[in-house]
Design goal:
Blueprint: H1 6-32, H2 34-49
Length: 56
């Protein structure tokens, strides 16, 4: 990256920072909703056991 012009380095750095911020928001969202995730997982397993799912 150091061989790129400063404007391109800045653009790449901005994309990386945006990705990191997006990941932080997902981490926080999942941390706030463990009960909901567990419920969704249980529902998915129930559908699987009932034969209501199909392999992709």
């Amino acid at each position: 990256m150091k061989t790129l012009p400063a404007t391109e380095q800045d653009a790449i750095a901005a994309m990386i920072l945006a990705e990191l911020e997006d990941q932080r928001r997902w981490d926080e969202a999942f941390a706030r909703s463990p009960d909901m995730l567990a419920k969704l997982a249980a529902e998915a397993m129930a559908e699987y056991r009932a034969g209501k799912t199909q392999q992709l």
